[in-house]
Design goal:
The protein is α/β, with parallel strands linked by helices and about 230 residues long. Helices cover about 15% and strands about 25% of the residues. The strands form 6 sheets. It has a 7-stranded parallel beta sheet with strand order 1-4-7-10-13-20-23, with no helix packed on it. The longest helix has 17 residues. It is globular and about 45 Å long.
Length: about 230
């Protein structure tokens, strides 16, 4: 059985549930989020009235301007702290008290939740990082969702695996996505040097030891059988 969002991500805010709907699969949340960001970029009036108002402040220590529907989308820009040599390419949304360290590159669309810490030299692309997630230095994350309070260790590779002719499948279930990363449940811990195949799903509080290689489209259930 493939976990749904309700099995992986708990205590979602109304903002997060706009994309991460409890009764859907996690890859559907990415599709919904990408579509939402594209629509808002084309027409800013589509930004929901009940969402926090987007800011257009400059981010101290970063290159360029943090602007509403400009290079980057930022919420509460005064709470976003970034070291120098950080590059952020929109559209992306940042929550409160986000810390982005030196040498990191963030390529939107991304949603970086409240209190997230992104370590030195990370690469975050087309992903959602839920509040309190901690990404340690030198990590690569693409087309993924990282759960609330989860930790991703140094040098971990969660990059999306592109498929030239076929989409990622979980047995009989076709995601219809030819590029898919990893879905890390709330409070899960991934130790240093782990490599995950496309579409790996981690349960809340799951622990993955250093150096482990997780096969493509594996779930907590089928990992326990192996």
């Amino acid at each position: 059985m493939i976990p749904k969002n309700a099995d992986i991500f708990q205590n979602l805010t109304p903002y997060e549930e706009e994309f991460i709907r409890p009764d859907e699969y996690p890859w559907q949340a990415l599709v919904r989020f990408f579509s939402f960001m594209d629509d808002c970029k084309k027409d800013p009036s589509k930004w929901p009235a009940h969402f926090p108002e987007l800011d257009s402040e400059k981010m101290e220590g970063a290159h360029g301007t943090i602007a509403t529907f400009g290079r980057v989308h930022v919420r509460n820009a005064e709470d976003l702290k970034s070291d120098e040599n950080t590059e952020i390419f929109g559209p992306s949304i940042f929550g409160k008290d986000v810390k982005v360290r030196k040498g990191t590159v963030i390529t939107g669309p991304c949603w970086i939740g409240d209190g997230v810490m992104v370590g030195v030299g990370c690469r975050i692309k087309h992903s959602i990082l839920l509040p309190g997630a901690k990404i340690v230095y030198g990590t690569r994350i693409t087309h993924s969702i990282i759960g609330r309070g989860a930790l991703v260790g140094s040098g971990v590779n969660l990059e999306a695996s592109p498929f030239e002719t076929e989409s990622v499948r979980y047995e009989e279930t076709d995601t219809k996505m030819v590029e898919l990363g990893v879905f890390v449940g709330d409070r899960a811990r991934i130790s240093a040097g782990v490599t995950c195949g496309a579409g790996v799903i981690l349960a809340p509080d799951e622990r993955i030891k250093s150096g482990v290689v997780l096969p493509e489209a594996s779930t907590p259930k089928n990992r326990r059988r192996s």
